[in-house]
Amino acid sequence: MLEFKNVTLKYAKDTVLNGISMKFEKGTINVITGNSGSGKSSIMKLINGVIPHFTKAYFSGEILFNKKNIYELDIAKRSESI
């Protein structure tokens, strides 16, 4: 399971995600939709580690994969598992 808990993301002065919480259960297909600039790509960048490792942004909250903080997992192992 992949879980976002109270995730906020800001680029400079722009708040892209504001306190979002959601779960993606194993074996399910999920769709994220929204207008341009609503944070869809930013969600993927948080999951794959581009943010905060390669893109400067303010991030708060938790992103868990099988109840473990994804930022404590090795990037290669995370990419292989998710």
TrEMBL record:
Keyword Glycoprotein: no
InterPro entries, per database record: ABC_transporter-like_ATP-bd, ABC_transpr_LolD-like, P-loop_NTPase
CDD domains xref list: ABC_ATPase
A single cellular component GO annotation: plasma membrane
Enzyme Commission (EC) number: 3.6.3.17
Origin superkingdom: Bacteria
UniProt GO MF annotations: ATP binding; ATP hydrolysis activity; transmembrane transporter activity
Keywords: ATP-binding, Hydrolase, Nucleotide-binding
ABC transporter domain boundaries: 17-77
One Pfam assignment: ABC_tran
Listed name of the protein: Xylose import ATP-binding protein XylG
